[in-house]
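Review form for a predicted model. The reviewer records the input and the model, then writes brief findings.
Reviewer: anonymous (R2)
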Amino acid sequence: MKSHITRIFVLTVIVVVAVAMFNRTSPSYERNYALSYSDFIEDVRSGAISEVTIDGEEIKGRRTNGERFTTYNPDDAHMIDDLLANGVKIKVAKPQRPSALMQFFMSWGPMLLLIAVWIYFMRRQQAGNGGGQMGFGKSRAKLMEEDQIKVGFKDVAGVEEAKEDVAEMVDFLKDPAKYEKLGGKIPRGVLMVGPPGTGKTLLARAIAGEAQVPFFSISGSDFVEMFVGVGASRVRDMFEQAKKRAPCIIFIDEIDAVGRHRGSGMGGGNDEREQTLNQLLVEMDGFSGNEGIIVIAATNRADVLDKALLRPGRFDRQITVNLPDIKGREQILKVHAKKIPLAEDVNLRDLARGTPGFSGAELANLLNEGALFAARANKRIVSMEDLDKARDKLLMGPEKRSMVMRKEDLLMTAYHEAGHTIVGQLMPEHDPVYKVSIMPRGGALGITMFLPEQDQYSASKDKLESQIASLFGGRIAEALIYGKNKITTGASNDIERATQIARNMVTKWGLSDNLGPMDYGESEGLGYMGPQAKPMSEKMAQMIDDEIRNLIDRNYKRAEDILKQHIDILHNMAQALMDWETIDKNQIAKLMKGEKIDPPKPDSEPPASTDGNTEEASPEKTDSSIPKQGPLAT
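Model under review:
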C-alpha cells in the first residue's frame, strides 16, 4: 500500500513540474486582453486616452471619460512618440526583480527535481536487485517473523515419522536451557531428503511455526552469481542476520545447487559455486550448537552432496521424507479438502486407496483439478465423479476429443487395448485392470490402465514376467486380427518397456536361473553395454543377450496362447470399446466372463464403478528401477 502511495505522489510531482515548466515557457501574448493594440493607438491619436502605466509587456490606463483599460505592449518603437505627441501622461511601474535564490530556483529547480526523482527510482530498482553493485553481497533470504507463520504440524500430513524426528528441535527452540543443563546439543543442521512434492519445505516452515521463531528461507541457486565471491558474501550476511534474530531457523531449499562435490567444476576449487560452499561450511562451524540457530536444507539428490556437508557438526541429522502411504494420503486429502466444498458421495478414504505413489503435491493438484471440473460444469460442490475425472487426467493425460481418427484406426486401437487387457487379466499376480479407453489422451491413441489393489514395494519374478506378457498383448492382438504384415508402430513403447524389464531381471535383479544372482549392469540403468559398463567377456555378453531373448520369447508365446484361446472375448471387448470409447473394470469383468455389453443408449454415459474401491496410479517402489505398472499407451 505504501509503495502505491509513493508512486502516486511522485507521478503527481512530475506532472506539476511539467505543467509549471510549460506555463513558464509559453508565450504571454496568447492571453486575451480587453482592448486590442490597434484600437489603443487610434484612441491615443484621437485624444481619448488621458494617462497610461507601462508595466513591462502590459499597458494599463485611463480614458478621458474615466474608464480604465488594459492592453498588450508589442514593443512598438513609435508608441512613446505617439503618447507624447497627443499629451498622454506616461507612468512606468518599477519592475519587481526576484532574489538571486528565487532566480536560481526558477531556472534550475525543475531540472533538479527531475534528477532527484530519477535517483529515487534508480535506488528502488537497485534495492530490488539485492542493493545494486554495492549490495551484491547482501543476503537474499526472505524473513518471516513469528506472527507471519501460520503453518503448524497440524497442516502437515503423511510424514508422521519425519514429524517425530523434528519434534525435539521444536522443544529445543522453545526451551534451550532444558538441554544445556544436561550438556545436550541439538543438531546444527538437518538435511531433508525425499522425492519432489513430499512436503519438505512445508515441514520446515511448520517447525518454525510450532516453535514460534523467525524463519529465513532461501534457495541454493540464490547464492551463486557470475562474480566470484558474491555467494560467499551472501552466506556471511545471511548468518549475521540470523545471529541477530536467534533463536531462528535458516531453510535452504535445493541445496544441491550449491553443495555438490568440490573439484567437479571447471575452475577447480576457485569457481564461484565452490567458494560459496566453502563459506557455508565455515559458517556452520562458526557458531556453537546452542546459539539457537538451526539450518534446515532440502534436496532430492543427497548422493551428489559434498561429504563435508554431511559430517557430524554440520548436517549431522538426515530425515527422509518419503511418499505417503494410504493413511498418509487420506490425511493429506483431508487437509487440502478443507477449502473445497465436497459432495456427500466423496469418500476420501477410497480416493486415497486409489492413488498409490502420489505425493502430497500431486494429491493437492488432484483436488484442484476436481474443483476445476466442477466449476466448468457450473456445479456448486465437487462430486466423486469430478475427482475421478481429475484422477484419470493426471494418470492418463487429458482427452483429445478434437482429434479425428478413421473408424479403421479406431478399431485397430480397440483390438490393441483389448489384447493388453485380456492378457493382463489372465496372467498370475498381475495388477487388475482399472479402465480401458480408445480416446486419445496425451501422446497416446489408446490407454489400458492397470492399477494395484494396495501399495507395493517390490515385485516377484512371476509378476514381472506377467507384465512382460501383457505388454506384448496389444501387438499380438493386431497380428491375430490383421496379420503380421499389418502390425503397426503402436507397440513401440510396449516393446521398449518389456525389453527394459527383461534386461533388469537378468543384469540387476538376479532373476535369471542360468546367470544367477549377480549384477551385470549399471545402477543408473545404462545397461551392460553402456559407456561405463563393467568389464565382461564376449561370451558373457552373449549369454546375457540369450537370456533376455528367452525371457521375451517365452512370455510373448504365453500372451499369444492366451489371446488365441480367448479370441471371442477379444472381439467382444473391441466392439465394446468401439461402442463406449471407455469401459471400466465392472464392464471388463462381464466381458471376461464371456458376456456381451449392449451399446449405449442415446445420450447415456458409461456406468460408473459401484464398489467405490477403485485403485489407481503407479505403485510405490523401494527400488526406482522396478517398473511401475500403470497405463499402457498405444
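Findings: Residues 25-32, 126-134, 523-532, 606-626 have pLDDT under 50 and may be disordered.
Further findings: Residues 100-128 form the longest helix (29 residues).
Recommendation: see findings above.
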